[in-house]
Design a protein that fits this description.
Blueprint: H1 2-16, E1 24-28, E2 34-38, H2 42-48, H3 52-56, E3 59-63, E4 75-79, E5 84-88, E6 97-104, E7 107-114, E8 126-130, E9 142-147, E10 180-181, E11 187-191, H4 194-197
Antiparallel strand pairs: 1-2, 2-5, 3-6, 4-5, 6-7, 8-9, 9-11, 10-11
Helix pairs in contact: 1-2
């Protein structure tokens, strides 16, 4: 059923897009990050609203990286009068580039969009650290960092340091690839490396 409906969507584009304007995709950055595909014909919008599964097979948004095995960016779709919008699930990283492709007949897009690095973008903030006590016990195994917005995919341990009274402790954390996040990437669980802390 999904394959059949996808074929209907593809046929709709091949028949309807020739009368549309040029294929355009842009990144809206005013208050959040939204990829917007413009000049989409109305018949397709009507069908796509009821079949986002097929839509996901026709639009590809990936982090621009030599590693071609990276999966598509996670997110959801929304629709305006004449456009398709893709809302990423997680906050995009400043300066990061994304490879955008559409596989529509007569609506072909193959481009790269880079997130600006200026202060117009929403800033994240560390909201809380748990435990909240000023002194932690020596046998503490983990602590938690809570952020106001979903975090990106940069290595979190490159931003964390642990100091004692005299100097910085080398490699004090158990480093898990991409970090140990909750589902919406607003809470980071940081595990202490017991052996290194005891040295």
């Amino acid at each position: 059923m999904i394959v059949f409906r996808a074929a209907i969507l593809f046929f709709c584009f091949s028949q309807c897009l020739s009368a549309q304007g040029p294929s355009i995709v842009r990144l809206l950055e005013d208050s959040s990050f939204v990829f917007e595909f413009l000049n989409v014909p109305k018949p397709f919008l009507v069908e796509a609203k009821t079949n986002t599964t097929a839509l996901k097979t026709l639009i590809s948004i990936k982090i621009s990286d030599p590693d071609t095995m990276l999966p598509d960016v996670l997110g959801s779709y929304d629709f305006t009068k004449d456009a398709i919008r893709f809302i990423p699930r997680f906050l995009l990283v400043r300066g990061q580039s994304f490879k955008i492709k559409s596989r529509y007949s007569n609506y072909l897009i193959d481009t790269i969009i880079t997130v600006r690095e200026d202060n117009a973008l929403p800033l994240n903030k560390l909201e809380a650290i748990y435990p909240t006590t000023s002194v932690w016990p020596e046998n503490l195994l983990r602590f938690y960092l809570y952020f106001r917005l979903p975090m990106g995919f940069s290595n979190p341990y490159s931003f964390l340091k642990l100091n004692n009274v005299e100097n910085e402790i080398k490699d004090p954390f158990v480093e898990i690839p991409e970090g140990l996040w909750n589902d919406n990437r607003t809470r980071l669980t940081v595990l202490f490396h017991p052996g290194r802390l005891k040295r």
